[in-house]
Amino acid sequence: MSNKTFDLDARTQMPSLYDPDVANDALEAFVEPDDRLAGGLAFLFCDADGRLLQPVLVADVPDPPSEEQRWTAIRWATALCEMVSDEHSGPLGLVMAMVRETGPVSDEDRAWHQVALEACAEAEVPLIGMHLVTLDGALVLPTASRAA
Q: Which one of 14, 21, 37, 60 is at 20 to 30 Å from 133 when CA atoms are compared?
């Protein structure tokens, strides 16, 4: 019997974030209330099957951001996906969320969403989902299934 404290094989048992409800649950667990009050962007980097590899929260996001700042943030995330991907593990996928205190989906969110769709397509990075996380919870923005 092994006395492991961390099981690397456990990741294969994780549900896929291609399921928007699972992605919402993952974002709810990752993004703390204080982060929602402060605002920012959440990136969930996933393997080719949509299993979470690494969550990252970027807190210093201009409000409102310029179009160039949106592209810079998303290209940073897609560049990480490209650097870590390889022919053995396949492309990394990305779940992205705008994080803020309150509000329904806004034109600002739609602008982030459009840049994410275009940047992920440009880099051939699967955009698994685009979400909004507020103190009220997480919700998914409509997007094409397994968009790239």
A: 14
Q: Within a domain: residue 66?
A: yes
Distance between CA atoms of residues 63 and 69, nearest Å: 10
Question: How many C-beta atoms lie closer than 10 Å to residue 71's C-beta?
Answer: 16
89-102: pLDDT as tens digits: 667 899 999 999 99
User: Does residue 146 sit within a domain?
Assistant: no
Reply yes or no on whether the pLDDT at 84 is more than 90: no
Which domain CATH number covers 77?
Answer: 3.40.140.10
Number of domains in the chain: 1
Phi and psi at 102, nearest 5°, equal -145, 180
Within a domain: 86: yes
Answer yes or no: is 131 within a domain: yes
What confidence tens digit (pLDDT) does each residue in 122-143 have? Answer: 999 999 999 999 999 999 998 6
